[in-house]
Amino acid sequence: MYTDEFKRIGTRLFSEGLVGGNFGNMSIRSRDGFFITHTGAYLDNPGEPVFVPLDGPVPKEASSEYRVHREVYQKTRHMAIVHAHPAHAVALSIMTREIVPLDSEGVMLCPVIPVVQGVPGSDELAMNVSDSLCLSKLAIASGHGTFAAGKSLDEAYLFTSLGEHACRVLILTGQFR
């Protein structure tokens, strides 16, 4: 279930340099839980997603970031999440607590991108990302990567791409703060 959709979005993320190697993960909400990529999966060839219930035990095959996905789905109405590791967004996240885009798309669609703290795979990161995604469709975990959410994987991908573009523009213009 969802294998083709995961592969299509994963291929875009990989080809655009938004993920590398086996970094990142994706999920889609279902009635009683969500489907998420396997731990260690290459997103351009993710295989069959793993079902994770909203409560209860988590299959060992599920991505190590399942906590973030679960917490976001418990707190919001988002239907899909993309977690990527775009280099420019990661770089800026190390230097600031929020990113204020200058490019027209960033200003229009995500005028402030919160940067949150937490160790990858931790409950702290899950709480901080989910709190941010209650108010936005994009957050960046400091030194780690973006978490984008929306009504579909396509929309979550769009916000992932938007965040990296905004960070690239800020770096190229020397205007980050």
Describe this structure in words.
- The chain has one domain (3-173): L-fuculose-1-phosphate Aldolase.
- By secondary structure, the protein is an alpha+beta fold.
- The chain has an eight-stranded mixed beta sheet with strand order 3-2-1-4-8-7-6-5, with helices on both faces.
- The chain contains six helices and eight strands.
- 40% of the residues lie in helices and 19% in strands.
Write the layout of secondary structure elements.
Elements lengths: L2 H13 L9 E5 L3 E4 L13 E4 L12 H10 L4 E5 L2 H9 L2 E2 L4 H6 L3 E4 L6 H11 L4 E4 L3 E6 L2 H21 L4
Please name the defining characteristics of this protein.
177 residues, alpha+beta, eight-stranded mixed β-sheet, single chain, L-fuculose-1-phosphate Aldolase
